[in-house]
Amino acid sequence: MNRLKHFMGITGMVILILGCKESKSITTEIVRPNVLILLTDQWRAQAAGYSGDPNVNTPHLDSLAAISVNFKNAVSGMPVCSPFRASLLTGQRPLTHGVFMNDVQLDTSAVTMAEIYGKRGYDTGYIGKWHLDGHGRLQNVEPGPRRQGFNYWKANECTHNYNHSVYYDNKDPERKLWDGYDTFEQTEEAIDYIKGRQEAMNPFLMVVSYGTPHAPYHTAPEDYRKRFDPEKIVLRKNVPDSMRVQVKKDLAGYYAHIAALDDMIGKVMYNLRATGQLENTIIVFTADHGDLLGSHGAYKKQQPYNESIRVPMLFYLPKSLGIAEGERQALMNSEDILPTLLSLSDIAIPETMEGVDYRPYLEGEVGLGEETLISCVQPFGQWNRVQHGGKEYRGLVTLQYTYVRDLNGPWLLFDNIADPYQMNNLVGNPDYATLRKDLDKRLSIRLIETEDEFLTGMDYVEKWGYPVDDTETVPYTQ
């Protein structure tokens, strides 16, 4: 029986021989879905046709959204690159896995997505940007524990030089370059992988991690850049007049990257259909965080505003799961993705995970996802304290409000329904004092539940032993 269980775990298939006068065999397949994660970098939730952006057409993404579950209020709980990626892989919050800054290494003993799926017989693969190794951005992430359970590997630690993009090919330690715009080449690599899995007996877990539409904004192929006239870009209402010219220019480039990515999503979907694998594949389309792009007078991420924390979150689910497509209100967070995927794959969720399993919610359970946490443990880099006024914060996001506390006390309170551009901070408004106190109490309860003492960022830096420079940022080498 133990050998039979092992066989089931590896192949997903059991053959029963029934003893009778004439031996007959019955083959019963336990169909486990493939899992394909399309991860983009710095794609804010607003920037798609299906979410109402007036500046860009995303027909392929819109088509995917139409047949997917759309977590329209999804949040990147710590909206910056490495913390999100570590939460995606572990189902844990940043103060647990320890990756609360960029350019540090995720503990190689972590219980990760690839290790869990791999033990259930999945082929595991990773293509594109990693940013969880901390050994230099252009250096090889050596095969073994540092790849956190991923076997197939055509990836790099971190680069945003999209037309001269480094990667490493499986066990080959020689540095290689993608031939041209890496978004295109990484997609072709993923398609080749998918085609190669067509006859495989076991399912796959594949993460395709794009560097775009992250800055630099003006490096998409020329034919995409020509589609966007800066003069015609419609700005969000919270972009200051003094920044309008520059933001329009940068948004035109940002949307060019998005248009290119949209075409790649179309190619991936076409090939999944053509190889007959679409109906047995869970697809997640998301981003590690957004981009302020001039909103609130700022660029990039880390800050607690919607342009920074809100991300696209589409789950395409095989019909066999019996879950209807359409919009969902739940505030899915970064650490919730993996436990939800495991549940949808009928794989037990390890006790190490802290995220919410949203499968019951998708099947009709109410009361889940009505609020979630956001945080900045230690401001660094593009929002460091010394040069850019960054600061530690903890926040509670509900279906209507965003409430944020810094180390000095209440900082921000927005009614996101009445004030979708978050231009009216209600934190000092006496008419909202009762609401603020209630949200503050709920935030305190959540911090206790998650064992978050809300110390200074440098306390956590010292605890984890991270080296920082004069801007309190972990320095990195190429």
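Next protein, fold it too.
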Amino acid sequence: MNNSIWRKKPMHMFEQDMQKSELKRVLGKWSLTAIGIGAIIGGGVFVLTGTAAHYHAGPALAISFVIAGIGCIFAALCYAEFAAMLPVEGSAYAYAYGTVGELFAWIIGWGLILEYAMGAMTVAVSWSGYFNKLLGLFKIEIPAYLTNDPISYKGLAVNLPALVIVWFVTWILVKGIKEAAGANNLIVILKVAVILFVIIMGAFYINVDNWTPFIPAATTVAHENGEMLPAYGWGGIISGASAIFFAYIGFDAVSTQAGEAINPKKDMPFAIIASLLICTVLYIAVSLVLTGMMNYKDIKDEALKAPVAYAFESAAHQPWAVFVITAAATAGLLSVMLVMMLGQTRVFLGMAKDGLLPKFFAEVHPTFKTPWKSTILVGAVVSLVAGFTPISLLGDMTSFGTLFAFTMVCLAVWILRFRDPNRDRPFKVAGLNIIAPLGILVNAFLILNLGRTAQLFALGWLLFGLVVYFLYGRPKSHLNTRE
């Protein structure tokens, strides 16, 4: 028995887990790619583009998207190499367990729980906002006490749309991975079609004068709180990349579906990289269209909340497009929530299979072949928080969990390449000695640029996780009895 906190899960144990898995292998490479796109493209492309253009980069927002995409591709390549070697549920947690050690694996797993839970809660509240806006376009109004949390409303209230939509997504996830993937595929087709509509239709209304100068001179801009902060120039482009990073979160969720992939060793690397590249191209195109349709200085006040819809209404004089774009954003957020909650339960499943969490999280339904108990628990927690809590820091906290996992994956795949250079790697990253360090530096830099309050909350979560590990995870670990 090895009681070291640095003990690693042997590779043959991963192979045993794969052979004994009760999950259905029904996901092909395009279904996996759609899961990645479903998680990445949400409300961010319709909202963050305006904020980043006005406050940070101006027309050069397209360069900000390129920089953020490059930062993500370093991590994506490392994820792809690991996913091909260890095609098991658990994502970065499982990769670290087999290479860096149990304590690191636990910290990463705990960070992923933060990412997916907070991400799902944030998206549920955002979905409620878009849904209410969509109803408003049809002159339907829900009472304010049924669309707000008690603290924001300052009285008895519940965000009913957010609460209900979480339970709807929970029902889909319990029903089965095939049904969940099918629903996600339909939503992805819809929102990609609308984004292509925005790009193609918007191209006819571009005024190239709005792109001049493409990189505005560095200056300071008054933010919504009245604070004057640096903007534009290359500094603004870099800060813009940090601001829009949240829009890229999600491709790592593909790696949590390895247990349900038909051919994970080949399809996982393809889906991870393809989903990221497709979304990066779409993001760059949308940012060019938006800053071409209206001047970045005019994206303010109401335009900041829905910049793409506002551009079509004011610059293109196409108010009907607001309906299409709002409907697409509503549907897009639904698929993000679905993938976030799906990833959450698969991380729980991987950790429970190793004994680090109770068996409850690993119980698979005999008919649906899904971890139904943990799915219902996740649904209950996410719905209650989304329905009754004002959530302002969740975006940064979600980013913290993601960036932390990205950093650790880049480190772990680099370590394993030195420790076990002869291991079979169905997908091998070329130039890893450059890519891995760059991934570590970029993601660590972005962590340091997150809000201070969010950093403290996330640190508190990680410290709480260490208490749980030493009191429960370490004593119950299967490595105590199976080595």
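About the second fold: The first strand starts at residue 219 and ends at 222.
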